[in-house]
């Protein structure tokens, strides 16, 4: 067992010992050429073997069915093409007759969409094909060879099998002449027996006339995906196979801890998206020329392809959200700052760190405990010498409005005196090896078994372990971190589970590997929901569980982080395209470890990372066991002051961020957005991956290199921009402008046309902000107009689902700012009122309006009017008091909950 632990720790530490050792990592993980199903399909043109049997083509309102024949093998497949009312078509291809190939269980997606179908009209039919129309989408199905072309509003969107790379390996009996790799494959001493033989599929998807595709996380690479094939920057396809990749490299195609088989393609006038609902190992090649060609090869399962035809980025994401669900609305505390390290050693350490934040007047919300807090890595227990009074410790932290998080990993120490192990063992809750006995692998605790969370029964049992009576030493202030849930198995092939392991329903791990993480995450979150329903039977408590592994649907469960990055500038930089990609694939609640997990950041890197990190939807500082301590006040007073200012900036922005999360929750929109998403017509922005938007109203340009005194900022055209520190308008010169920077901050701008709600009083945590009044920043566009929203609820329970929330629309037009109720179709009306007021309104960009104006305020309920002076002043309370770039309305006492109008008139 010692050896096992040593091996595990050794693996995790290797990154420290061998910084940037590319060779080592590459050897540990499989490439396409070393993987039978990938190498036998990559670039292999067998698509012409597939033909539709014309007589089989049947159209039935919203669904076309046909038999697809593999001429060469004389095998038949069933093809089903269905148009759905939520803006997509779904293509299913499976063997005929069915041989029971694996399909992703329905609980990975949401329900409802299956029955909301859209009619398909047959436009024409010939001996060699049929042309169908549904809404704005045209589907041209060619019989021989089998191809499908999709266009939207007459613009070519997608072609299937136009490069002749489609393939579907049917099940077959074993033959002596079968090539190596069909029935068995060995990698680094691990033999994968393949009882079902070869069953891969290849999808050939061309995006005609596009130059940019995005998505298929997770990897540390560019936002606009680089080519992988032929004469390409990457000679290796992108891989989707959840793995524990210790100290990953940036700028690399290999897949990390999570997978979402979603890709978006964007060109002027059209955005299209695809989702292959398949949880097996997958490789995706990207070829760039006049079009973007992609080849997707999956090891097993069926073809279950969704094509989102909504035509714009927001519409594609809204449609995907109808299928995979939206981001669960997080608790407000979880959007504050999280302080983590491997490990906060004991109760005294916790107290000191918690006190350090107050002593240095830096807000934070959550203190985290990594694996060393447990009794020998037996999760849900405590090391009683280090944490003798965990309840008192949590209550103490909670007395200042804060929370704690403990880590709970999916490997269970094989120790019959450990209650979790023995209960799960006797109930038969573990994943089985190929022989049918409990799988025994190595992880942090040594010999471990793994809960078979793909079973609803096991998830239900797991959820029950989180009530405060079951999880001894826990309180309602404690939330959970799920790590290592790819799953990580230190002595397994590629540090994960064997593909011939067996799950609930006799499913091979090969088929559902990429689901393990989301199911574990789901079971844990269900546990916190259950606990919440006991603590507050009426309203419950929204779970907060951070996960490392993920799949489609994870957004409904909780946030993820990008795993073990490094304290290097390149990792700070790549965090932006990584998080933007997650937002574009429906998983916006994500963050990267601020400071970098491995290694020791210097003061400058630390500063710049906080200045960027405050915009991460999930904002946590974390560090490896062997690193030097790096709480925000350990780098000297100047650095502390800068980090304090940055973190306070995050807290000031929380009303805006929380409002964006509401939109993510209702319509699947990302929090951080690439510039092309907001400015889809500006082609020079399609590959921009350093700058990003926070919602649609703020532009951020991180500083990603040391000793930087100037940066080039690209200001998308068609909008005015205002410096978010001073309020100064950006002179409308060139699109890209060189901007001076100092260590105090990074360039951030308000977009003209936006109203951004803020809370500017420095507080120790989100709980302490609850009664604080708001500031509205009104940044006028060229027409002197602006709009924005504010969403408010109790920040913690499910009461918002019953309408206990407040959602306001702010509109500024014709010198009038109004607040009205926000109404959203399909969402219950908000009925909450709060006593909070708006204490400042700051107008940016009003024409020479600094003097001689006043504001007439009309109460929308009583109709009463009163007048308040308008004066030139600073943009924010934290800005220099002599700054006069803004027109400030002080103490207007505008009620947040009611209608009102502020009219600017000349004195
Ligand atoms: C790996 C995780 O990625 C890291 O964040 C954590 O600190 C270690 N496991 C120890 O639990």
Would you mind describing this structure in some detail?
The longest helix is centred in the last third of the chain and has 31 residues, at 637-667. The protein is built from 15 helices and 51 strands. A hairpin with a 2-residue loop joins β17 (262-267) and β18 (270-276). Strands 6, 7, 8, 9, 10, 11, 14, 16, 19 and 20 form a ten-stranded antiparallel β-sheet that branches. Strands 42-43-47-50-49-48-51-46-45-44 form a ten-stranded mixed β-sheet. Strands 1, 2, 3, 4, 5, 15, 17, 18 and 21 form a nine-stranded antiparallel β-sheet that branches. The N and C termini lie far apart (81 Å). α5 packs parallel to α6, α8 (456-464) crosses α10 (516-535) and α12 packs parallel to α13 (637-667). The protein is globular, with a radius of gyration of 28 Å. It has 907 residues and is an alpha+beta fold. 1-deoxynojirimycin binds next to loops. 1-deoxynojirimycin (NOJ) is lined by residues 342, 370-371, 407, 483, 548, 563-564, 597, 622. One of its GO terms (cellular component) is endoplasmic reticulum. Residues 668-756 form the Glycosyl hydrolase family 31 C-terminal domain. Pfam families: Gal_mutarotas_2, Glyco_hydro_31_2nd, Glyco_hydro_31_3rd.
